[in-house]
Amino acid sequence: PKAIDSMVDVLMDNKGEIRPLLRFIFNSDFFKDARYKKVKNPTELVAGTIKITGKFGMIPETGEAIGSLYSTASVMGQALMNPPTVEGWHTGQEWIDGGTLNERVNFAVNQFDDLTTPGFQDILRRLGEKVKSSDLVDRCLDLIGPIEVGDETHAALDNYADAVGDIDLSTDKSRTENAAKVGRMIQLIVSTREYQFA
Fold it and tell me: Which terminal residue of the chain, N or C, has fewer Cβ atoms less than 10 Å from its own Cβ?
């Protein structure tokens, strides 16, 4: 209600012009604080992850079968075309419990086992030829989302980046050696709490 009252005031003060209202909304704390508050439903998680890997373009030739993706979302609690009530599915924390969280994380991590997918190759290309270990986490977070992670999560990802060192993708040999390190970083990112949120 307070946010709505503020928007009404801005709209009235500017004689109904939309541009100042949009500027107010996009710069407001209530708008910025709403990010990452919604848990991705299983379909959003599955489709978003498949899109990042680039596997969707591979269906039906060599990629995941649509039926398999449907089954994956069903195991996570969302059988498409079969909502629990006429109002559809609920949103929020109920998508995550002990069993479904494990399924969600395993699905996302397993999608990045194959380092030859078009999406992963695109991530390597967009990273550039050389990436300092101090930049690896933020660069990967940006390419996967962008995703903002908490300090504790970022510190854990930084520990891995420090352990693997600088990434050199400038030659075929170094690319082969370092692709797995980047892949592991991506797997760590998609296993985070923050990846589960939209």
Answer: N
Domain extent at residue 194: 37-198
Q: What residue spans of 57-191 are helical by DSSP H?
A: 66-75, 98-111, 118-127, 133-144, 151-164, 172-190
Phi and psi dihedrals of 32, rounded to 5?
A: -65, -35
The pLDDT tens digits of the residues spanning 126-182 come to 999 999 999 999 999 999 988 999 999 999 999 999 999 999 999 999 999 999 999
Q: Higher pLDDT residue, 29 or 113?
A: 113
Enclosing H/E stretch for 130:
strand 130-131
Q: Are residues 119 and 171 in the same domain?
A: yes
Backbone φ and ψ of 3, nearest 5°: -65, -40
| Helices vs strands, H then E, count in the chain | 10, 2
What is each CA distance from 11 to 18, 26, 29, 82, in whole angstroms? 7, 14, 18, 41
